[in-house]
Specification:
single chain; about 325 residues; D-Maltodextrin-Binding Protein, domain 2; five-stranded mixed β-sheet; binds D-xylonic acid
C-alpha cells in the first residue's frame, strides 16, 4: 500500500513536471503594446520596428508587437505606471524618468560620465549596468536592454550660449528628474521639468526658452523649427531602456521570454549603430535647417564640469557610495586606465 502511494505520488510529480515543461516552451498568440515617446521616423521609432519584426519572426508570427509612438500611450512616466499596473506590456524611454521608481537610475544622469559611446556600451552592458537594471524588478518592471538616446546638447531661443554666464536666467525645459533640475540650476538656468510629450508646444508657445537633447531628437522632433541656437555641450549621455511589465513577463513561458530578450538584443545593436550614424551627420543637417551652432571651448566645458561637481556628490550620496564607486571603477576599466 505504501509502495503504491509512493508510486502514485511520483506519477503525479512526473505528469506535473511534463505539463510544466510543455508550458515553459509554449508560444501563444499575443499582442504586445509597445509605447514610446518620439515619432516613428526617429531613431527610437526605427529600432522599435526592428524589435517588432524580430519578435514576429522568432515567434513564428504568433507574437505581434503593436508599436505606438509619439507618446500616444502617455509620457514616459505615465507609461511606466501602466506597465507596473499591467495595463500596458512594453515601452522604451529614458532611464532619467525612472528615478522616482528606482533611485539608482540617477547614476546615468551623472554629468560627463562617459566620453564616448564605446565607454557607455561597456558599462551599461556590463555587470553594474545589469545590477542597476535588475533593481527595477522589485518595483514591477523588467528591464531588457539599454538603447542609446545619446549625448545631450543645448538649444534655446534667447541667445547664443558660448560661456557659462550665457545660461543665466534661460528658462530651460529638463526631464522630470532631480539631477537634471539641480544640474541646470547650478549652471544658472531656470530649470523647468516637463514631460517630453509637451516639449514642442512649450517651445513653440515660448513657455520655455530652451531644452537639451541629442542631435537625433532635435532633428526628428523638428525642434529646429522653434529653436535658433544650438550649443554642442555633450553634457551628459542618456540611455534609453526597454521595459516589460513584470506582471506580464511573469505570465510568459520561458520560450516567450527568450523571444523578447533575443529581439531586444538585436534591436539594441541595430539602434546604437543607427543612432551613431545619424548623430554623425545631424549637426550638418541642423545647420542646413538654419540653426546657429556654437562649440563650447574646452575652457568653458571645464568651468561647467567644475560647477557640476557638487551635483556628483549629491548623486553619490543618493545612490550610495559603494554603487557610485563601482560605476566609476567600471568607467575606468572601459577607458583602459
Ligand atoms: C522620450 C524621452 C526623450 C528624453 C527627454 O520619451 O525627455 O528629453 O530625451 O528621449 O525619453
Amino acid at each position: 500500500k505504501i509502495k503504491s502511494l509512493a508510486l502514485a505520488a511520483s506519477l503525479t510529480l512526473a505528469v506535473t513536471m511534463s505539463v510544466g515543461a510543455a508550458h515553459a516552451q509554449e508560444v501563444k498568440h499575443r499582442i504586445i503594446r509597445f509605447g514610446y515617446g518620439l515619432n516613428d521616423i526617429s531613431n527610437q521609432g526605427r529600432a522599435t520596428k526592428v524589435f517588432a519584426d524580430e519578435v514576429e519572426k522568432l515567434s513564428g508570427g504568433k507574437m505581434k508587437v503593436r508599436a505606438i509612438g509619439g507618446a500616444a500611450l502617455g509620457s514616459d512616466v505615465q507609461m511606466q505606471q501602466a506597465l507596473i499596473g499591467g495595463a500596458q506590456e512594453m515601452m522604451v524611454g529614458s532611464t532619467a524618468t525612472l528615478v522616482g521608481i528606482t533611485k539608482e537610475m540617477a547614476i546615468w544622469d551623472t554629468p560627463f560620465l562617459f566620453n564616448n559611446g564605446k565607454e557607455a556600451d561597456a558599462v551599461l552592458d556590463g555587470p553594474v549596468g545589469q545590477k542597476i537594471m535588475d533593481k527595477l524588478q522589485e518595483k514591477g518592471l523588467v528591464g531588457l536592454v539599454y538603447w542609446e538616446n545619446g549625448f545631450r546638447n543645448l538649444t534655446n531661443n534667447k541667445r547664443a550660449v558660448a560661456k557659462l554666464e550665457d545660461l543665466d536666467g534661460i528658462k530651460l525645459r529638463v526631464m522630470q528628474n532631480n539631477v537634471f533640475i539641480d544640474s541646470f540650476k547650478t549652471l544658472g538656468a531656470n530649470a523647468v521639468p516637463l514631460p517630453f510629450s509637451e516639449l514642442f508646444t512649450a517651445l513653440e508657445t515660448k513657455t520655455v526658452d530652451g531644452q537639451e537633447n541629442p542631435f537625433n531628437t532635435i532633428l526628428s522632433s523638428k525642434f529646429y523649427e522653434v529653436q535658433k541656437y544650438l550649443t554642442v555641450t555633450n553634457h551628459v549621455y542618456s540611455p534609453w531602456i526597454v521595459l516589460v511589465s513584470k506582471k506580464y513577463w511573469d505570465g510568459l513561458s520561458k520560450t516567450e521570454q527568450k523571444v523578447l530578450m533575443d529581439a531586444a538584443r538585436k534591436s539594441r545593436d541595430f539602434e546604437r549603430q543607427d543612432t551613431r550614424a545619424e548623430a554623425d551627420k545631424a549637426l550638418a543637417d541642423l545647420k542646413a535647417k538654419g540653426m546657429q551652432i556654437n562649440q563650447l571651448s574646452p575652457m568653458e566645458a571645464n568651468r561647467m564640469r567644475d560647477k557640476l561637481s557638487t551635483v556628483n556628490a549629491g548623486i553619490a550620496a543618493n545612490v550610495g557610495q559603494p554603487l557610485w564607486d563601482e560605476v566609476q571603477a567600471a568607467v575606468k576599466k572601459a577607458r583602459g586606465a
